[in-house]
Automatic annotation (TrEMBL):
<feature type="domain" description="ArnT-like N-terminal">
    <location>
        <begin position="104"/>
        <end position="229"/>
    </location>
</feature>
<keyword id="KW-0472">Membrane</keyword>
<feature type="transmembrane region" description="Helical">
    <location>
        <begin position="154"/>
        <end position="172"/>
    </location>
</feature>
<keyword id="KW-0328">Glycosyltransferase</keyword>
<dbReference type="InterPro" id="IPR050297">
    <property type="entry name" value="LipidA_mod_glycosyltrf_83"/>
</dbReference>
<feature type="transmembrane region" description="Helical">
    <location>
        <begin position="323"/>
        <end position="341"/>
    </location>
</feature>
<feature type="transmembrane region" description="Helical">
    <location>
        <begin position="377"/>
        <end position="399"/>
    </location>
</feature>
<dbReference type="InterPro" id="IPR003342">
    <property type="entry name" value="ArnT-like_N"/>
</dbReference>
<feature type="transmembrane region" description="Helical">
    <location>
        <begin position="192"/>
        <end position="219"/>
    </location>
</feature>
<dbReference type="GO" id="GO:0009103">
    <property type="term" value="P:lipopolysaccharide biosynthetic process"/>
</dbReference>
<dbReference type="Pfam" id="PF02366">
    <property type="entry name" value="PMT"/>
</dbReference>
<feature type="transmembrane region" description="Helical">
    <location>
        <begin position="226"/>
        <end position="248"/>
    </location>
</feature>
<dbReference type="GO" id="GO:0005886">
    <property type="term" value="C:plasma membrane"/>
</dbReference>
<feature type="transmembrane region" description="Helical">
    <location>
        <begin position="20"/>
        <end position="39"/>
    </location>
</feature>
<keyword id="KW-0808">Transferase</keyword>
<feature type="transmembrane region" description="Helical">
    <location>
        <begin position="107"/>
        <end position="124"/>
    </location>
</feature>
<keyword id="KW-1133">Transmembrane helix</keyword>
Length: 521
């Protein structure tokens, strides 16, 4: 359904222009999104701890079976993304090296982001009939620094959001007419796509099933069975997954992990995220990232202003997408106040924010002839200025980040492989360092002279930003006291981890180890 009547002012006719075929617009948007993500590939951003986990888990299903990590079954997240990784390895071969494996899966996420950009073009054009609006959305998606940060890494949310967008794209024609041919089949198909999103990450149910149920109750005035049918279909893939796990005799393990995961989601258990004990407050992180994510914050601030007119005066399509945004906002607001809040959760809100801001922007731009000319002109000028400012801020941040290497962990690993004998004991100050080095070295937390003597630990790897921010098992004082005793062998300064350093320490005499308790390995 179009946002406004087909009768547009002549001056607005260009907004609906289709001088270029839509498929070509979508293809060019996908290509730009891919190029933007491949510039500086391998040098930025630095390897993130979860990427190594997800690479290992994806590698475990390359030949089939349930996802595993270090030999044990992995049920914390559903298997959807991991099977995509396994299929990607089947196509292009597997890598034994951690860094090469992570980079291979980053290419997979770049492809998923490209498809996402094309889907956004089709979705926006479907609702607004405006190709320029779709192009604007694709540009924001291509360059927004937060979206880039998430798409650049081997994280689950990129694939999850692609399935969500595909589901909404398939369901949108049902909002235009209740009497479309094969309406029930389309509802089932859209619901199954939502189901694949849920099979990728459970939390996707909050931005798929919940909006459909709300639409059936509040905005779908006839044939309410269609959104309810789609919601029911969305549960099928996950139900099949649970049934397969149960048939294999692993239901108790799945149940234990999932109930723990629900407690984490509700905030009853705070193991990770900004609400966890010892983590820096969200306000501090927001302030620190203001220079990078200023444009992103402006878009997020516009979201609530944009969704109100869509829910009040929009058609069925606008209201469905508005409910999608509202569901994501409620989920994130709960995570901020009480639940487990992790940085990547913002992606679940940011993508629908871009969509609803675009829909509202088109409504403003296509102001009716009866509206005061001055008011309409201000609205249009504001729309262009906000878009230009967001793209300018994103472009500036992009240029900064892509021209400065941020590959401390790849350089660290290469230095260690070249200069430190395999199997050496290495004192690590963070879990992410463990993940990057543990396949070649014995990594531990040997702080005291007795532990160092017992283990013959002669090397320390320090990630100073993680230490300073409280994300390390070492305090600042412990880390500085330890590294002060040794010689600096390697140092790299990057955006992600600050200074990453390797030190060689003198090994204390073996006599220090007598009677000492273990220090953890």
């Amino acid at each position: 359904m179009a946002v406004v009547s087909k009768a547009l002012p002549v001056s607005m006719a260009w907004l609906r222009s289709r001088a270029v075929p839509l498929w070509l617009v979508a293809g060019l948007s996908a290509a730009l999104t891919g190029v933007v993500r491949l510039v500086g590939f391998g040098q930025t951003p630095d390897v993130f701890g979860d990427e190594v986990y997800y690479w290992h888990i994806g590698h475990s299903v390359e030949s089939g079976g349930f996802p595993r990590y270090k030999g044990g079954l992995f049920f914390l997240h559903p298997p959807g993304y991991f099977y995509l990784e396994g299929g990607w390895e089947k196509l292009f071969g597997a890598h034994a090296d951690v860094i090469s494996g992570v980079h291979q899966m980053r290419l997979l996420n770049a492809v998923l982001a490209m498809i996402t950009a094309a889907v956004l073009v089709f979705l926006i054009t479907r609702v607004t009939r405006s190709v320029p609006a779709a192009v604007a959305v694709s540009l924001v998606f291509a360059f927004d620094p937060f979206i880039l940060r998430l798409n650049d890494r081997v994280l689950i949310e990129t694939s999850m959001m692609l399935w969500v967008l595909l589901g909404y794209l398939v369901l949108l024609p049902l909002t235009e007419s209740d009497k479309r041919p094969r309406a029930r089949g389309r509802a089932v198909a859209g619901g199954l796509l939502f189901g694949l999103a849920i099979l990728t990450k459970d939390v996707a149910s909050l931005i798929t099933v919940l909006p459909l149920v709300a639409a059936a109750l509040f905005t779908w005035r006839s044939r309410r069975s269609l959104p309810l049918l789609a919601a029911a279909a969305a549960t099928v893939p996950y139900a099949v997954y649970v049934a397969v796990v149960a048939a294999a005799g692993h239901f108790d393990e799945l149940w234990a992990v999932k109930t723990h995961g629900i407690r984490r989601l509700l905030g009853q258990v705070q193991e990770t995220g900004f609400n966890a004990a010892g983590a820096p407050p969200l306000s501090q992180r927001v302030t620190e990232e203001l220079s990078n994510f200023g444009g992103t914050y402006v878009l997020l601030a516009l979201g609530p202003l944009a969704v109100i007119p869509l829910l009040r005066r929009g058609g069925r399509a606008q209201r469905l997408l508005g409910l999608w945004y509202l569901s994501a906002g409620i989920a994130l607001a709960y995570a901020v106040t009480k639940g487990t809040l992790e940085e990547q959760a913002l992606y679940m809100l940011l993508v629908p924010t871009i969509v609803v801001v675009a829909l509202a922007g088109v409504r403003l731009w296509e102001g009716r002839a009866g509206r005061r000319a001055l008011r309409a002109g201000i609205a249009r000028t504001t729309t262009v200025l906000v878009l230009a400012a967001a793209l300018a801020a994103s472009g500036f941040t992009y240029a900064q980040t892509r021209t400065t290497p941020d590959d401390g962990y790849p350089q660290l690993r290469q230095y260690m492989l070249d200069h430190v004998p395999e199997g050496s004991r290495v004192i690590s100050t963070s879990g992410s360092v463990d993940l990057v080095l543990e396949d070649r070295y014995r990594v531990g937390r040997w702080r005291t002279p007795q532990d160092r003597a017992r283990m013959r630990a002669a090397y320390v790897v320090a990630t100073w930003r993680l230490i300073d921010q409280g994300y390390s098992p070492f305090t600042q004082r412990q880390a500085r006291d330890l590294t002060r005793q040794g010689d600096l062998l390697f140092s790299f300064h990057g955006r992600t981890y600050g200074t990453v350093s390797v030190y060689r320490l003198p090994v204390p005499p073996v006599s220090h180890a007598a009677g000492a308790g273990g220090g953890g390995g």
